[in-house]
Amino acid sequence: MKTVDICVIGGGPAGLNAALAASSGGASVLLLDNADHLGGQLVKQTHMFFGSERQQAGTRGIDIAVSLTTAVQGTPSIEVWLETTALGLYDDGVLTVECLGEYRKVKAERFVVATGASEKMLAFKGNDLPGVYGAGAVQTLMNVFGIKPGQRVLMVGAGNIGLIVSYQLLQAGVSVAAIVEGAPRIGGYLVHAAKVRRAGVPILTSHTILEAYGQDSVEGAVICQLDQAWQPIKGTEQKIPVDVICLAVGLSPLSDLLWQADCRMLYIPELGGHVAWRDESLRTSQPYIFIAGDVAGIEEASSAMVEGLLAGYVATLDIGLAPSDVSERIRAAREQLVELRSGPEGEKTRLGLAAVQGEAR
Amino acid sequence: MEKELKRTGVPDNRDVDSVYPGKERLASGAVAVLECFQRIPCNPCATCCPRKAIKAFHDINDLPIIDWEKCNGCAICVANCPGLAIFVIDENYSPTEALLKLPYEFVPLPRAGDEVKVLNRAGQEVGVGRVVRVQNPPSFDRTAVVHLAVLKELAREVRFFILGGAEGE
Lengths: 361, 169
What we know:
The complex is a heterodimer of chains A (361) and B (169).
Chain A: E1 2-9, H1 13-23, E2 29-32, H2 61-73, E3 78-81, E4 84-90, E5 94-99, E6 102-113, E7 117-119, E8 132-134, H3 135-144, E9 152-156, H4 160-171, E10 175-181, H5 190-198, E11 203-205, E12 207-213, E13 220-225, E14 238-240, E15 244-247, E16 251-253, H6 256-260, E17 265-268, E18 273-276, E19 289-291, H7 301-318, H8 326-340, H9 347-357
Parallel strand pairs in A: 1-2, 1-6, 2-3, 6-19, 8-15, 9-10, 9-15, 10-11
Antiparallel strand pairs in A: 4-5, 5-6, 7-16, 12-13, 13-14, 17-18
Helix pairs in contact in A: 1-2, 1-7, 3-4, 4-5, 7-8
Chain B: H1 3-8, H2 13-19, H3 23-27, E1 31-34, H4 44-48, H5 76-80, E2 86-90, E3 97-104, E4 115-119, E5 125-135, E6 144-151, E7 160-163
Antiparallel strand pairs in B: 1-2, 2-3, 3-6, 4-5, 4-7, 5-6
């Protein structure tokens, strides 16, 4: 059995920062990720990040992945296990994992669960045809492996992911026929929308996909307009010839491990679905388990990074291995989270967190 | 911010009016136009401006405020804006043409002298333009700034271009 002070599950923006914070006072840290590289979704984010300098605003996600990974690899007290899947987390502080075909156990004083999120699916006729992709898969194909998913894409969803991936498709030389969005308004940042609009991509709000058609793979999509009750308006159907349909219809926190560990779970739609109850330090109802990033509630990567720091620092305090200025660092992290969530686009998160705080542990 | 913008993603005349410099300032040379209409947590435009023409943010969600008298249209903010929402306009470029400095993140980059098709905020082709210069230094971090000469009357409309002139690609 491997014994460490703090174990971080997930090597994305939240987990990388949690590992760095957790090790900052001398604790031994084990960082796990199921991929063969660190960085999580950062490795696919070619755009410049928002936020302030403290969250590396203006830097591209791909470059943040490199700098955080380099920092982790340059910290001797952080050990990294890649291609490792967490299987179960138990009351006695033991985590079971599968690592490169081997079953292992890890004992830690504290765990930070930063497993991220999974993509939502949409029900429509033909959604099992080859050529129907999640936006994450399209990004992986293009930005990790350098492969175009097709020639012409229909994007479903005008949140930030739908808008950003549309822009990345254009950059890769793939045409985007349209972005359809069920809601009457664009959900993502308007600056992302403006970038694809001026490049000639229509954004059709109050529209949805009814059907994907094609013999052996996608040859087109049928879309239609929605009324105010989100019901299809008869006679507005139109066929759009495309070979790829890309779904960017939202994310769900990847919280299986938290359910299994018997953390108190809450259904908070504003945070993306089922999330663990947590206090203001991101500690769940199981005192030895913290959460950070999208698993705690769907948000931008900038907040995920700061949450990782906060959880990591508080975990070091618990075990008496905190850096000397830990209270200052915790205060700064809390301040940044308040700041990032204080605008109109942070309202959903604020409502969601208020709902969590209204619940007893 | 107008409701239409949230529905279509295209700023309309009223949106543009709210961020556009007056005639007098435009006539006096290059100036940045900040087409940022939504309060999101983002401030690199203010922190990167070497002349402090874009005011320091009180709250990170503030909309940027620019002092057009301090701005000289250097375009550093054009490359630094994560939303690619800043454009420089120089109506003094020539008797008939204005010079636009537009952010551009596509390959291949155009070259000085290229004729390109110019597009408005809705992606509609509205004419042709001529590439005058392409700035792509390491400090711009892969957001090139393309200097484009267009007819003066198009300066307020044109925000993008595609390679290949009137004759096609």
